[in-house]
Amino acid sequence: MEIRYLKQEEKEQSRVLYEEVFVEDEKAFVDAYYSVKACDNRILTAWEEGKPVSMLHRNPYTFRLRGKPIRADYLVAVATRFACRRRGLMRRLLTRALQDMEREKLPFTFLMPADEAIYLPFDFRLMGNVDEEGLADRDAESLSEEYDLFVEKDEDYRRRHISWPEWEATPMMMRLVHLPGFATQIGAKEPQSLRIAVEDPILSENSGTFLWQFDGEGSRLVPEKGEPELRISIADLGSFLCGMIGAGELPGLPPAENAGAVLEKLEQIRVLDGIYINETV
């Protein structure tokens, strides 16, 4: 078994697997996908007997996060041949992809799940995505007045975009990848610091105890020793920072008699207010 990214000239070999798994996709759509998206995406595969038997595609996007451009990969075409399932192949691919994205310092990744339960063990969680009629036609300046995170529809976006009206929007899931990079865009209402212990079973750089230092515009994580004020998983931290759960709902809060000060700090954090992602592939 070999785990590797396909070379550009090999990408068409993954189409057989795509068509085996995604039988609902019309040929015209698959043609468009492989002529447009596969031009510059990255296809991570598990090879056996000279052919890919499992794969995921990393499709690049540029986002505007609180006014600043950032790159993040959309994971799509996550598939394994029917005869090769239940062997842990997708676990190996998802783990490898997440670790590679961490090394590349991509702040987060996202996907549109066929089944949310598949991705929960990898610390993906639903994000508070908005998909209202008419938003797709608004420009970046207009969107930035209401949304902290949205896709930057620049020249690269237009070159890669596939318009396919039959697609229906479904909930998106997000996972924090390079936590220090994501934290730079998370400020607080007033300067403060919080000692936090983060647990990430897949991405080692995210795990540890940090002094989380905030100002009005952003924050930074400084490795620190000592007893944390809050212990939290990377999944719960992502849900909190994306506005899906409130400070008082977080697991790992200290006992009630000591929780007040920590809650007060958490409630000062400027979590994302508005996420708009209306992409399909």
Word description of this protein:
By secondary structure, the protein is of the alpha+beta class. The chain has 9 helices and 13 strands. It has helices spanning 15-21, 27-36, 89-103, 116-119, 140-144, 155-160, 179-183, 234-241, 256-268; strands at 2-5, 42-48, 51-65, 68-80, 108-111, 125-126, 149-151, 173-176, 192-199, 208-214, 219-223, 230-233, 275-276. Strands 1, 2, 3, 4, 5, 6, 7, 8 and 13 form a 9-stranded mixed sheet that branches. A hairpin with an 8-residue loop joins β9 and β10 (208-214). The longest helix has 15 residues, at 89-103. The radius of gyration is 20 Å and the shape is globular. It starts with a strand and ends in a 5-residue tail after the last strand.
Task: Write a brief caption for the model.
The protein has 281 residues and is of the alpha+beta class.
Task: From the structure above, extract its key features.
281 residues, alpha+beta, nine-stranded mixed β-sheet, four-stranded mixed β-sheet, 9 helices, 26% helix, 28% strand
Number of helices: 9
- What's the count of strands? 13
Structural class: alpha+beta
Percent strand equals 25-35%
The oligomeric state is: single chain
Order of helices and strands: EHHEEEHEHEHEHEHEEEEHHE
Helix content class = 25-40%
Radius of gyration: 20 Å
Mean pLDDT: 92
| Span between termini | 28 Å
Biggest beta sheet attributes? 9 strands, mixed
Shape annotation: globular
> Stretches where pLDDT falls below 50 for ≥5 residues?
none
